[in-house]
Design brief:
The protein has helices at residues 3-10, 15-18, 25-32, 104-125, 131-144, 146-149, 193-203, 210-227, 257-273, and strands at 54-55, 58-63, 66-71, 75-77, 80-83, 89-93, 96-99, 102-103, 158-163, 168-174, 180-183, 186-189, 243-248, 251-254. It is α+β, with helices and mostly antiparallel strands and 283 residues long. α4 (104-125) crosses α5 (131-144), α7 (193-203) crosses α8 (210-227) and α8 (210-227) crosses α9. It starts with a helix and ends in a 10-residue tail after the last helix. Residues 5-9 have low confidence and may be disordered.
Length: 283
Amino acid sequence: MSAESSGRSSARLPDAFLSPGTSSFADFLGEVSPELLPARRALPAGSPADLAPHGTTIVAATFTDGVVMAGDRRATMGNVIAQRDIEKVFPADEFSCVGIAGSAGLAVEMVRLFQTELEHYEKIEGSTLSMDGKANRLSALIRNNLALAMQGLAVVPLFAGYDRRAGFGRIFSYDVTGGRYEETAFHSVGSGSVFARGSLKKLYRGDFDATDCVTAAVQALYDAADDDSATGGPDLTRRIFPVVHVITGDGQQRMPEAEVAEIADRVVAGRMQRPDGPNAALN
């Protein structure tokens, strides 16, 4: 055999890359290189949760034309602010997004794997997954992280998107075992979620347009930051504001920071008059 032909042979891709296989990229990676999956990595002795920055509050709410997801920008490590401008809301594909709460490093890695999972499926099958299919795929990735979650490195995302078949926005929440739950109208996850949900419960209306929905989400994050030290409110001096994604039948897009800043400035100005936020009607 000539050196030239031997070089071509050694450069050939492994058979696993050339054989028909699963439409799940995570399953393929588990067969070919399982050590690359986040949940398969060995951890050192001790409590890794004390060393890992944690992302906090994410809120999502539907409106007449779709769904909004917003996240605060603070990451904490114990009682220390680890980062003031972390991004916790990411596009999953053209019509959906995912927000992260929990161990920030693992959560971002899981989001990237989820994005690749959806893209891989579309390339293999020639069509996109349904909203339920996307939610189920994310559920499987969370379930694969259960061993690390039991050691304190939990990841609990919030998933939302526009269902083109049904014609409206949908929201899905999860638990650390991968349990999937569809939420109605609005939901929140993270350390400040109790306060954010309480705020949305009073502010939410079924006839919201996109601007109203984003304003309610920013109000909810403000209320969460007001009572939860791990949630960051609008930072007026550094001009750091929540990350907001708006998803409609035309697709998903991140709201420009200038527009978010304008809404946040109005919310803060209102709080100067009413620190506890706007009044909710009694009937």
